[in-house]
Design brief:
- With about 675 residues, the protein is of the alpha/beta class.
- About 55% of the residues lie in helices and about 10% in strands.
- It has 29 helices and 17 strands.
- The strands form four sheets. The chain has a seven-stranded mixed β-sheet with strand order 7-3-2-1-15-16-17. A five-stranded mixed β-sheet has the order 8-9-12-14-13, covered by helices on one side. A three-stranded antiparallel β-sheet has the order 4-5-6, with no helix packed on it.
């Protein structure tokens, strides 16, 4: 072979038109030599020329398919029932498909009943057993319509991908049902016999559940959660369980998430902040029942040490339940742990002068005799002056009992198996930001100065800005959980800074005014000034500069943010800077819904473009099942692509193209005799 190549080289030297081809041949030969070890491993999977050709043909065809649908949500804040429904109805996509397919042939009530069956198949089938006189007739009717719906949703995927998504025990039959040609007589008889047998063998319920699961899986190819799963709502742990079961999800950390991650690592101030946040919304069940955290020593200490203070009463919202006794206990726990928190935060701030947060040292600014506090150069009367555990001469020292309580809480957090499982999932599937299909996803902000330059932030001895800051912050957060010794302790302190620091990319405000909100009635002291980022992103050029900082230069690139609720009810537009930035915090959390006027957004990115679905408040899963109620959603299309986006235009398309290149090298190696 090499003699032949030499002869060709001599011959083509006199013919420039052949030189380009010769260079390509040499380049491919060099690439084969460089990658021979990898190609030998690839040959184990593709052991023949035909197997390579078949895979190349398959992959090239996949590149021409429409891209999968992506959904983006943020700021779930523990609202597990609403999130469960949004996950089940695929942010309204299932109802849209149902109406498109059966808008003429089925009544609105029938379509709603089928939608509920897709959302909650097990519960809906139980209802069927209780209320339907002819269940087999209903099952057959439901099966036929679910198969038609599934065929429609599966049409943009390869048969191979659909097969991989099928439940193993039903895969063969469902595959046959989805791909049968019902217009051909033999196929039609075959199909009817399958349907007849499913009903006769009392196997319909299993098939319905399997089809409903498949429909939901195919309707949303990829789910992005842009931060803040934890705090405020009652059961973030239930949301975490659902996310861990999802077939394709990634997460960008929010400041509430990083707080829980540091608490799970055992950081005392973050543990105290997590408990304080849970008590503030009367959500202590998530700690005790959800994660097995022992709050009894804290509750007993709070009850004997503090009197009830209205300033620490739980903040409840419409539809939320908390008995008087629960509220009374929660208020005392809230007061006790908040005082401990201020002590721990004060010591942390003094350990880290580089954080420049001396204005958050509050306990030494109190006149304990007269009940006054000095804040921002002014003196304010305090609405609660009961501080039985604070020594004015050393206000940041924990009492012996407070020390004991905090040690117990830290041990509980570190040894909670369920919490550790959830936090490890946040680390394995998440990060500070993500670049996905030319879009930049992060929860809070990229800290900026007034002149539009990226702000320099010091964490753990290193100063960085822009993308380098986000990368460094992520590395620090991983050290805070997985590290050891002084390095771990320093990194955990930095995670606290990411929770509430003045230049934290996850927080984005000049201060967290927890002290003022608890002890000062003057609401002017509660103001938290946003970072310049939030003013500058109204300018498209600034958004483009941020995108380019992360290596995104496409005209279809966007910044996708959460963190700051959009006041949609007052006319605020979530789409900013000429469409370059989309804020998707629409108030999933009930605490924010009076301000936003809605109950959350889902950003939907499919092969046709981008649209934003605004959701109305959700009542309950029980009503959704019993009365076929759905979340009312309003969708607005704000960016339509001139040409339908294909797999080749996505990140997966890039990976497939690289695999095709590798297979092409393997094919050449086979044909040239190298392998």
């Amino acid at each position: 072979m090499w003699l032949a190549i030499y002869v060709i080289a001599v011959f083509t030297a006199s013919f420039p038109s052949l030189m380009c081809y010769w260079r390509i041949v040499l380049n491919i030969t060099e690439q084969i030599r460089k990658n021979i070890k990898y190609l030998r491993q690839l040959a184990v999977v593709y052991p023949s020329i035909q197997s390579v050709c078949t895979e190349i043909i398959n992959l090239r065809a996949i590149l021409t398919l429409p891209k999968g649908t992506e959904h983006f949500l943020s700021d779930l804040h523990g609202e597990h029932e609403a999130f469960t429904h949004i996950l089940n109805n695929c942010s309204g996509v299932i109802r849209e498909k149902m109406d498109d397919l059966f808008g003429i042939t089925l009544t609105a009530q029938q379509r709603s009943e089928l939608c509920s069956l897709v959302y909650y198949p097990r519960q809906k089938l139980e209802q069927l057993h209780r209320e339907t006189d002819a269940p087999d007739i209903w099952r057959e009717w439901a099966l036929r319509h679910l198969i038609a719906l599934c065929k429609n949703i599966a049409s943009k995927y390869t048969r191979s991908k659909v097969r991989k998504a099928l439940p193993a025990e039903f895969s063969y039959i469902i595959d046959e049902l989805l791909h049968a040609d019902y217009s051909e007589q033999n196929q039609s008889e075959y199909y009817e016999k399958i349907m007849e047998s499913i009903i006769a063998l009392h196997n319909a319920d299993g098939f319905i559940i399997a089809l409903a699961t498949l429909i939901k899986r195919l309707a949303v190819d990829r789910l992005h959660i842009v931060g803040d799963i934890f705090d405020r709502g009652s059961r973030p742990d239930v949301i975490m369980d659902m996310l861990m079961e999802h077939h394709n999800v990634d997460l960008q950390w929010g400041n509430h998430d990083i707080l829980w991650m540091a608490a799970a690592a055992g950081h005392s101030a973050c543990v105290a902040a997590v408990v304080a946040n849970s008590a503030a919304f009367c959500n202590l069940d998530v700690l005790e029942q959800g994660y097995g955290i022992n709050l009894r020593p804290l509750a007993m200490f709070a009850d004997k040490t503090y009197r009830y203070s209205e300033a620490f009463a739980p903040r409840l919202h419409t539809g939320e339940k908390c008995s008087k006794q629960e509220a009374y206990i929660a208020a005392k726990i809230h007061k006790a742990i908040t005082v401990i928190l201020f002590k721990l935060e004060g010591r942390l701030i003094m350990r880290h002068p580089e954080y420049d947060m001396d204005d958050r040292l509050m306990l030494d600014k109190i006149d304990y005799t007269n009940g006054m506090a000095a804040i921002g150069g002014r003196i304010y009367e305090m609405n609660d002056t009961h501080f039985p555990t604070v020594e004015p001469g050393g206000p940041f020292c924990l009492s012996p009992e407070e020390e004991r309580i905090m040690r117990g809480l830290q041990v509980s957090f570190v040894h909670s198996q369920r919490l550790q499982k959830h936090v490890r999932f946040l680390y394995s599937n998440g990060g500070m930001y993500s670049c996905a299909n030319q879009n930049l996803l992060f929860h809070g902000c990229i800290p900026m100065n007034e002149d539009g330059s990226f702000a320099q932030v010091e964490l753990c001895g290193a100063t960085a800005s822009g993308r380098a800051l986000m990368d460094h912050a992520e590395a620090v957060a991983r050290t805070g959980y997985f590290g050891s010794g002084d390095e771990k302790n320093n990194a955990m302190d930095a995670m606290w800074y990411l929770w509430c620091g003045k230049l934290s990319p996850l927080f984005g405000r000049d201060k967290m005014t927890t002290f003022e909100r608890r002890f000062i009635s003057d609401e002017e002291t509660w103001v938290e000034i946003k970072n310049s980022y939030y003013r500058l992103i109204d300018n498209q050029e600034n958004c483009i500069r941020i995108l380019e900082e992360f290596g995104l230069y496409s005209e279809i690139s966007h910044i996708i943010n959460g963190h700051v609720p959009v006041k949609a009810g007052k006319g605020e537009n979530p789409v900013k800077a000429g469409g370059k930035l989309i804020v998707i915090d629409g108030g999933f959390c009930k605490a924010y819904q009076p301000h936003t006027g809605i109950a959350g957004y889902t950003l939907i990115y499919n092969s046709y473009g981008l649209r934003l679905s605004a959701h109305m408040p959700f009542e309950s899963v029980e009503k959704a099942i019993a009365e076929n109620l759905d979340i009312l959603s309003y969708t607005s299309v704000f960016e339509t692509m001139q040409q339908r986006i294909k797999v080749m235009d996505t990140d997966i398309g890039q990976e497939i193209s690289e695999k095709i290149y590798d297979l092409s090298l393997l094919l050449t190696a086979y044909r040239s005799g190298e392998l």
